[in-house]
């Protein structure tokens, strides 16, 4: 029996998690059938940005949402996963939607789906689309959860697609062939519509699929990119100095926004991008006089970005990771900036114990911890003059920030 419209969001989330064997089931047939019942048909047409990629999706969608809001447009932003509260996944005009509105959406989907089976991610994606549709928002910013071609988000046609980066992640679903992964990501492209590429280092399989779909490709470094301290795109350029999100992502978002035809001055774009703060992305916290840096990155590509951001700075590294991630690759990417490496157990589904994490790599770990609180306290005491980096998972960063903020 499903919860009622008067039940708590937590009850609904537990319910949709329990009725399907997996959180994610790739394929569009089932979710499309339900969407046909629930969403408007040709009544209005929002401008849709769809963003796929291995890393950088969250910050790129944040930038697109901020630009649309700066332009004064009613904007929906769907992203995943969340850091603290589920509501972070579904935002209207930059603000998380209330629990009650999400419950109303989930209730509508539950009644409308009939006997069609939906995964957790399909429910939550439909909830976002239903809320955006009900509010008749002018702009929809949609982040692909996994892959692209068969992801639930792809039931909506993108006016402008963005593909940020391509790396190895979610191997159980996408495999380890970089060209096949590129093919899957390119599935969000539409004929004669633009696709903005967020990296100059993308596999040929992606370019081939973009061409086969007759999409219009805008390559990073040509029409948009970063040069010295300047973010540029076809519509102009701005100073990158005070922009706290990755500048490659900022450039891609500006190019995508320009191609949508929505008008915004460069001063307004500068203001919108400088106002973005992304919790858990190279976030620095001063805790009892000690510098702690957290980042949600969890694959080798993200690890290389983190190491680049840290530069010559050597840090004490504390990692907690999920079982389906490339632990060895992530650890190796962080090795150049690590003074010491430590592991902490992650007490969530698919979470590795600290001992299991260490066993996944041949890198010498200094110590293991059962809890985040214990790890932070001891590492700060033993190496008080060395910054502490904490990462490996959204769950790890959530645990760390929750403890630090207390």
Automatic annotation (TrEMBL):
Protein known as: Dihydrofolate synthase/folylpolyglutamate synthase
A Gene Ontology molecular function term of the record: ligase activity
Domain of life, per lineage: Bacteria
Enzyme class: ligase
Family from the record: Belongs to the folylpolyglutamate synthase family.
Chain's role: Functions in two distinct reactions of the de novo folate biosynthetic pathway. Catalyzes the addition of a glutamate residue to dihydropteroate (7,8-dihydropteroate or H2Pte) to form dihydrofolate (7,8-dihydrofolate monoglutamate or H2Pte-Glu). Also catalyzes successive additions of L-glutamate to tetrahydrofolate or 10-formyltetrahydrofolate or 5,10-methylenetetrahydrofolate, leading to folylpolyglutamate derivatives.
Pathway: Cofactor biosynthesis; tetrahydrofolylpolyglutamate biosynthesis; Cofactor biosynthesis; tetrahydrofolate biosynthesis; 7,8-dihydrofolate from 2-amino-4-hydroxy-6-hydroxymethyl-7,8-dihydropteridine diphosphate and 4-aminobenzoate: step 2/2
Mur ligase C-terminal domain boundaries: 280-382
Residues annotated as domain Mur ligase central: 51-186
Record InterPro entries: Folylpolyglutamate_synth, Mur-like_cat_sf, Mur_ligase_C, Mur_ligase_C_dom_sf, Mur_ligase_cen
Any one Pfam family match given in the protein's UniProt record, by short name: Mur_ligase_M
Enzyme Commission identifier(s): 6.3.2.12, 6.3.2.17
Keywords carried by this UniProt record: ATP-binding, Folate biosynthesis, Ligase, Magnesium, Metal-binding, Nucleotide-binding
Species of the source: Reinekea marina
Catalyzed reactions per annotation: (6R)-5,10-methylenetetrahydrofolyl-(gamma-L-Glu)(n) + L-glutamate + ATP = (6R)-5,10-methylenetetrahydrofolyl-(gamma-L-Glu)(n+1) + ADP + phosphate + H(+); 10-formyltetrahydrofolyl-(gamma-L-Glu)(n) + L-glutamate + ATP = 10-formyltetrahydrofolyl-(gamma-L-Glu)(n+1) + ADP + phosphate + H(+); 7,8-dihydropteroate + L-glutamate + ATP = 7,8-dihydrofolate + ADP + phosphate + H(+); (6S)-5,6,7,8-tetrahydrofolyl-(gamma-L-Glu)(n) + L-glutamate + ATP = (6S)-5,6,7,8-tetrahydrofolyl-(gamma-L-Glu)(n+1) + ADP + phosphate + H(+)
């Amino acid at each position: 029996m499903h919860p009622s419209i008067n039940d708590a969001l937590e009850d609904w989330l537990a319910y949709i998690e329990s009725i399907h064997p997996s959180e994610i089931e790739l394929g569009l047939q089932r979710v499309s059938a339900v969407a046909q019942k629930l969403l408007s048909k040709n009544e209005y047409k929002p401008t849709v940005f769809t963003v796929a990629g291995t890393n950088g999706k969250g910050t790129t969608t944040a930038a697109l949402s901020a630009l649309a809001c700066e332009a004064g447009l009613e904007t929906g932003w769907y992203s995943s996963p969340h850091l603290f509260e589920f509501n972070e996944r579904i935002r209207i005009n930059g603000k998380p939607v209330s629990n009650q509105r999400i419950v109303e959406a989930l209730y509508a989907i539950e009644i409308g789906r009939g006997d069609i089976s939906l995964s957790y991610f399909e429910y939550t994606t439909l909830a976002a689309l239903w809320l955006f549709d009900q509010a008749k928002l002018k702009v929809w910013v949609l982040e692909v959860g996994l892959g692209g071609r068969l992801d639930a988000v792809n039931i909506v046609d993108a006016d402008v697609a963005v593909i940020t980066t391509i790396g190895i992640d979610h191997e159980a679903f996408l495999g380890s062939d970089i060209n096949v992964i590129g093919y899957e990501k390119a599935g969000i492209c539409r004929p004669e519509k633009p696709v903005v590429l967020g990296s100059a280092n993308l596999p040929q399989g992606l370019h081939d699929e973009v061409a086969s779909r007759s999409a219009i490709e805008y390559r990073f470094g040509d029409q948009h990119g970063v040069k010295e301290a300047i973010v540029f795109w076809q519509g102009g350029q701005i100073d990158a100095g005070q922009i706290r999100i990755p500048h490659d992502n900022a450039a891609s978002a500006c190019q995508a926004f320009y191609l949508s035809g929505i008008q915004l001055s460069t001063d307004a774009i500068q203001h919108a991008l400088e106002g973005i703060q992304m919790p858990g992305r190279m976030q620095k916290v001063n805790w009892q006089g000690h510098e702690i840096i957290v980042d949600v990155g969890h694959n080798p590509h993200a690890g290389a970005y983190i190491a680049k951001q840290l530069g010559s700075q050597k840090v004490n590294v504390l990692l907690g990771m999920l079982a389906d991630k490339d632990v060895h690759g992530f650890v190796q990417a962080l090795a150049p900036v690590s003074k010491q490496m430590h592991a902490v157990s992650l007490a969530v589904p698919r979470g590795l114990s600290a001992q299991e994490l260490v066993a996944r790599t041949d890198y010498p770990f200094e110590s293991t911890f059962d809890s985040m609180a214990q790890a932070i306290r001891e590492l700060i005491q033993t190496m008080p003059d060395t910054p502490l980096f904490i990462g490996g998972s959204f769950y790890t960063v959530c645990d760390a920030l929750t403890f630090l903020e207390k």
